[in-house]
Amino acid sequence: MGKLLIVGTLAFDAIESPFGKTDKILGGAATFIGLAASHFNVKSAIVSVVGDDFPDEYLNLLAKRNIDLSGVEVVNGGKTFFWSGKYHNDLNTRDTLATELNTLAEFNPVVPEEFKEPDVVMLGNLDPTIQQSVIDQLTTRPKLIVLDTMNFWMDNTLDALLSVIKNVDVLTINDEEARQLTQEHSLVRAAAKIHNMGPKYVVIKKGEHGALLFQDTNVFFAPALPLEEVFDPTGAGDTFAGGFSGYLASTKNNSFENLKNAVIHGSNLASFCVEKFGTERMQNLSKEEIEQRLTEFSSLTQFNIELQS
Amino acid sequence: MGKLLIVGTLAFDAIESPFGKTDKILGGAATFIGLAASHFNVKSAIVSVVGDDFPDEYLNLLAKRNIDLSGVEVVNGGKTFFWSGKYHNDLNTRDTLATELNTLAEFNPVVPEEFKEPDVVMLGNLDPTIQQSVIDQLTTRPKLIVLDTMNFWMDNTLDALLSVIKNVDVLTINDEEARQLTQEHSLVRAAAKIHNMGPKYVVIKKGEHGALLFQDTNVFFAPALPLEEVFDPTGAGDTFAGGFSGYLASTKNNSFENLKNAVIHGSNLASFCVEKFGTERMQNLSKEEIEQRLTEFSSLTQFNIELQS
User: Fold this and answer.
1) What is the reported pTM?
2) Closest CA to B80 of B137, B10, B6
């Protein structure tokens, strides 16, 4: 069984989409990563922080998925990180209505002893100084460190972000953010520049248009599954990251061929995430459903042209 | 050897892109379709019209590719169709600067006797009444009729367009146009509605984001090859259509499995088209380059996950 160390937010989300709106529901990068990774043969731990307003019900939900929560600090009298957003009609763009850091503002992550030598580290989207602090606490360099980030950190803490990017093996980032980070419109060129920043592998997420995996001149592309309806994209990127890192922690094989499979597994799980609000779909997802959709991914992309060379 | 009947424009194009601008150069849907299809084992014929300002050099270029031009009417004293456009910085959007129909305005297509029983008909993007007239001249119903169109005909001649769409087997259309035609944002739902309009197969082209092939509940996706630089997208959709229909005419196999291959061949050829202005890249394209890039398409998309079911 592989060991996966996750750092990221546990949060309350309030979401508006063309299909409705929610009250404060369970959200956060670490939540989606943990739920997605739990479908693989891994022992995961989440390093995060919440206030004492965070329901036991949410923590139990994660604990039941074989996720170690000893690295989750509960701040007495503190409030949990809160994010609120409203999606536009095309669901590709959104406005952030509120971001309340609360307990996250003063968070000092502590990696549990048992997870200081993980197989894979998944640094979910949050402050790069927190991501670096998690790396610094490891006793041996793990086989693979994956970092997810977003434009907010490029805008506000670029130096710290570039510093931690140097130390990771895989950067997962969306297409517009890759362009912002590198000042290159071509994603091929953007990926080449990111390689030069440190990461051996670059994953560029294009939402409904799929995801690209780069390793120098090797490129792999996984489409998003065409869906009748995308209900709520919140957490899709984190779910991708959880499927990606969870699969790699369970297989302990970091070849390009196996990273291709990890991209497919991540895309597959993300395709479920967007079907309902928040974590709802991810909480009720069977092995059979996952396998069935993997076969759909396969028939969606696999062809058999006779190549003469 | 398969027979492919092509109707479409032969044109002068003047193009501005972030990389430069051209004078009047060779363009037109039938030009790009014919050049692309010429890479397969087919005898093609173009049905079109030009003025006597259209250089013999351009006609010779097509004739040398084994394309029958007896269906190309040359109007003495007439002027050839002219299109001018300017691409924005992202190359995904463009402004049309000029559209001069000229001889195209009064065009009555005449299908050469030898091509009244083709294997495949490729109805390139032009007035749907011209597309229908070509179908009406056929002596037997061909195995496959493919129609390409664009938003201009939806805006201006929707009834005529819907009428000819009823009579075709494959509609190729871009994503925004599919949404406009069906009033459905989801491409899965848009394809289902288009099936109900007549076509058994629907190809939705997403430019740099690839192309989707639908046949009822069967879906196949071909990515666009990630390129360092897209120079000029003009003709990419027509080149796709030419590769798609040319491959199908040469193989005479209209199964879903073979249409998947046709989508890959179309995408492969389109990936070359955008590398230079106009037809420049398509005029100097070797069998070896095409084969080499097909192997890139294969490694870009093929994976090997063990499926349990």
Assistant:
1) 0.93
2) B10
